[in-house]
Give the backbone structure.
Amino acid sequence: MAGPVAKTCTLAIDVGGTFTDITFTDAATGALWVAKTPSTPGDLSTGFVTAVRKVLALAGRAPGDVLRVFHGTTTATNAILEGKTPPTALVTTAGFKYVLEIGRHDIPRHGNLYGWSKPTRPITPERVFEVTERLDVDGSVLTPLDEPAARLLARQLAQLGVPAVAVVFLHSYANPAHEQRMQAILAEEYPGVLVSLSSEVLPQFREFERTMATSLNAAVMPPVSRYVSVLRRALDGEGVQAPLLIMKSDGGVTSAATCVRQPVQTVLSGPAAGVVGAVSVGRSAGFGDIISIDVGGTSADICLVRDGRPEVTKDGMIGPFPLKLPMVDIHTIGAGGGSIAAVTSAGRLTVGPRSAGAEPGPVCYGRGGSEPTVTDAHLVLGRIPAALLGGELPLDVAAARAAIAARIGRPLGLDVEEAADARDDAERDVEDVLHQGRATGVGSAGTADAAASRASLAAFSGDCEQPLSSHTAAVAAHSRRTLTEIANYTPASPGGVRTVDNLIRRQWV
């Protein structure tokens, strides 16, 4: 009797703001299939399942053939950036209630010294509670945990109904016993509450940064927990019993169970996956020094890779908040294929960060969108075909022209084509950087380098079936410092990062 057939297939799914992309590979044969379907913001699992069905049908394979499922998610990222986290509580050592609120006595480098306002914390002071306990710097107990008070507080939190609690005790990185005991008390008095311990999330000194990381982790635990549970049920319903692995911000993967406990590790999940893919493609093309530019429907992610290794930082930011966890050093800009173009009251063209997303999408999608986007500009300029997704999504050229004429052309005194190809101030800043790059030798790549750049971009620009028009050189404006560094950097091997000119000026961004 023949034994069971070995599972050799892998699914990789990236849910973006506009499209959901999926890749199916068979390690035994090397065969690869890719598919794309519109994302479903109302219920992301719907687009997820649609993509799985689509690629399995394309490959002619069964759900039982899948060995593992990789997934890049922006659930935690969006919850933090949009401020849509549920009410969360923080339990801390008595006397340290305002550590999170006080933060650091400095102003961001690009902030206005006189006009900068401290961002609202993920947990405000009225939801910060103190418990008597104290550890020394070496972890020795100075004051035991007041368990009766801790139990009373747990009951109070249950009455408040907060779905998640962050626990941050002084010096718990040296001894997690008090935090673990607080977690056990919460489980006894408030069953089902999600608990985030600083000794697990960021076990190192620096009280503000540790408190911030633990608070952000607690704040995104409820939405991420729901999302992962929905995906698991959806996969089970399709007969895909393979383990679900989530991309982490540092480019690695973690199990779904760990992701639920430490979702803050996934704040750059999707973008990090793009960088890992770019490194792989660059290596295959013979380049170790590259710029990965992952342009999606709602944002663009840029990363500098040297010697085949992406830069990794522990001084990252998620929105206005510092996050001292390892993450790929990615600059994210709110400009993509769905970025909305508008003319300000002062008569200036702006592109992004508002995006049409998947619903209603660009005007040319015919789904109710009325504001012109970068995709509409590309369609009008003839840079994308009249239908996407292999003909599944026909595009309305007339509607795109009308929207650009009404909202961009007439206010700026331009005809439709000129309006579609107009540039904003951000792109002019990028051109200044590129001019500096040419003066120092960057951007002098030959035809072979340019071809390799195009091939690499085509291979890993996952969410963007439509290339971006000249508007979206704005995506690199935020990375002016990074591009300047590149301009002053001479790679050890010929080529490499010298393709920056081709990547941006030739609109392969």
User: Anything to note?
Assistant: Residues 1 and 493 are 56 Å apart (CA to CA). The two ends are 55 Å apart (CA to CA). The chain is about 35% helix and 20% strand. Residues 1-5, 429-509 have pLDDT under 50 and may be disordered.
